[in-house]
Every structure is written in C-alpha cells, then in structure tokens.
L-threonylcarbamoyladenylate synthase (Candidatus Nomurabacteria bacterium GW2011_GWA2_40_9), 190 residues
Amino acid sequence: MSSKNIWDNENLVKTLKNGGVVVIPTDTIYGIVGRAEEADTVERIYKIRKRNKEKPCIILISEIEDLKKFSVQITEEQGKILSEFFPASIPTSVILDCEDSKHAYLHRDTNTLAFRMPTDEGLRNLIKQTGPILAPSANLEARPPSENIDEARDYFGDFVDLYVDGGEIVGKASKIIRLHKDGTVSIIRL
C-alpha cells in the first residue's frame, strides 16, 4: 500500500454511512466491510460472503469508547490490558463479552464480540467518520483472502457497492486473543 491515505475518500465515507458494503484494504488484508451498527448491512455482508451464519466477525473501532456502542462493559483489569492492544504494533483482535441480545446479529449467540483498533491513523479516521465497521476478509467462505481488487471482484462482482484499490496486499489475518473479565488472556490465533 502507498503512504497516501486511501481511506480519505468522500465516496467511501458516504457509501458506508448509507449502509453500503465496500471492499477496502484494512490494516491486515482486504476486507469486505460495512457499518457494524446496521443489522441489515451486517446480514448483507454474510450473504455476499456466504459466511457461516454462526461465526461472528471482527469489528474495527477507532477508540476504546466505541465498545460502549455494543454494550461491552470492561473491568479495570481488562482496561489495563486493552491499552496494550488498542492500537497494537501487531494487529490484534480482542474478544470481549457482549451479552446484550440486541447485538445478537453480531455475536451470533456466542455472547462475545471481537474488536480491533487499527494501527493506521487513516483507517481509524475513516471509522471515526462512519462508526465501527464489520470487517471479515474479502473472500468467500473457506476460500483464500483477496490479495488485490481483481481477486475481490472475482469473488463478489456487482454485489459490493464500492471497491477501494490499495494495490497488492499479501498480508496476514490479525492475531486474536480472548480477554477475560479478570484480565487474563487466552491466545486464540497467533
């Protein structure tokens, strides 16, 4: 990716704010994204991606305060640990408890949600403008992640409202940890 802020794009902000689904480079790999607070948009992403309906997706946030939008209560111990990972030098998604049934469309009856705060300030600024975004990798279920926009188009065609080209990205999915209420951490994916 170039150093230019590819997320500073009026059309991208507008499309996301209007409930659209877009393919963008994230801080790790290409993602098929939409506003996490829009249940219809979330369902559309699951349908386009043919994602297993029982698997929750990672939500990208711009600041720790965004967790409140999802009824996530963090303990003092969790807060200390979160400050190490939000944002982290190595992209890290953190699974937290979310027992509010109004967010079942996101947590898929797991009563947990995974959040990541991107290290890239440009991407965090986009999220500040649009609100938190659901960001599974840009591929069909059980297929390899898109490494460029052409591969993403082959997967999704006209079902996506906008494609943002960040060049070739041969990245790696984020590390995933589970942060328990007592502040202990379980590593889910390295």
